[in-house]
Amino acid sequence: MTSETARLPALWSDYVQLLKPRVMSLVVFTAVTGLVCAGAPIHPFLAAIAVLCIAVGAGASGALNMWYDADIDAKMRRTRGRPVPAGKIQASDALTLGVTLSLFSVMLMGMALNWLAAGLLAFTIIFYAVVYTMWLKRFTAQNIVIGGLAGALPPVIGWAAASGTAPANAWLLVAIIFLWTPPHFWALSLYTSEDYAKAGVPMMPVVKGAASTRRQIFGYSLALIPVCLAPAFTGLGGVIYLLVAAIGGAVFLLLAWRVLRSRAGEIPGERNDDGLYNVRTTSRDARNLFAFSILYLTLLFAALLAERAMGVSPLELLR
Amino acid sequence: MSDPNSESEAFARARRGRNIAIALGLVAFVLIVFAVTVLKLGASVVDRPL
Asked: Mean per-residue pLDDT for A157-182?
């Protein structure tokens, strides 16, 4: 953690930055998909409250992460502008905000929706802030594999909020995000590994090397695509979903194959300073997979939402 | 050297902004709890053992 003394006046917008709004938007999107796919009758206002609680809970996790990781964040180009390392907000204020919002979001979820959803939300916050941030991230190269569970849980929280249950189909959505996380993050870390090494974070390319990371990216991609296809056969997705999952999955595998065949992550200084996507030639394949992985996950969940909105029947019901 | 008056003014302006944000957040929370209570209980609020 950095110094306790904030040197600049903290604006309210700096506190919003503590909540990681970009991560929050993906969490909200997947949670809404879970909530809608549950197909349970729920008052629109209560549905909005459920989404708000999940968003605030995710934001609270982000604030707790920025409190604990301020020392790491200060050493990495991607994160050194965050409010705590930048000296705008005291680390203890980030902790207070994180704990307060965690309690409010879980309590409101329990009182307004149900305690299964509240329990899953509490578990997610604790898993991200304690298990991932305080332990796994600094301890093992499997940090983002196991820690990815926290980012994968929002659909089942949304499902539970709407229906009070957490059936297999909800966990299938969790499995998709869980298996998607390693290729997504490792593709990024292939061309940002210098930063992670400097900060002492044992990311896979730092610990096992670029070649091993590329092989594992391909392995996880092979495991991911069948799981992405599965909802089309379990009563969750319809023909639109199947097409998106199959075509997008083929592109995903092609890009992962290109990463496997490339030399991404082997030459130091592969990333230019201006942004996540501006990389040198050797890491273009890794950059492409990273960018496409975000698009693929978004399209998968958007397809499920679109089918529900259009009333497309899941394939299983057509038999 | 920076002017200490303008610096403290910047801190005061930032604090006012934060206070307004907290006030809006608390008002929103109160309204949400009220709305959820009405929704969850609805007409049943009078249908209870006295």
From this structure: 97
Q: pTM of the entire structure?
A: 0.89
Instruction: Name chain A contacts of B11, Cβ cutoff 8 Å.
Output: 9
**CATH no. for residue A76?**
1.10.357.140
Amino acid at A58: A
Average pLDDT of the residues of chain A: 91
- Considering the domain boundaries, does residue A146 fall inside one? yes
A47, HSE (Cβ side, Cα atoms, 13 Å): 17
- Closest of A138, A90, A254, A262 to residue A190, by C-alpha: A262
The one-letter amino acid code at A104 reads: F
Q: Quick check: B21 and A46 CB within 8 A? A: no
Q: What is this model's ipTM?
A: 0.79
Interface test with A, best of B32, B33, B34 (most A CBs within 10 A): B32
Q: Domain boundary at A165, A186, A210, which?
A: A165
Distance from CA of A275 to the nearest CA of B (A): 29
Q: How far away is chain A from the Cα of B50, in angstroms, using its nearest Cα?
A: 23
Is pLDDT at A30 greater than 90 in this prediction? yes
Find the domain containing A88 and state its range. Answer: 16-165
Closest chain B residue to A97 measured between Cα atoms? B22
pLDDT, tens only, B1-48: 566 677 788 888 989 999 999 999 999 999 999 999 998 887 666 666
- Of A165, A183, A218, the residue that ends a domain is A165
Burial of A279 (0-12, 13-18, 19+ CB in 10 A): buried
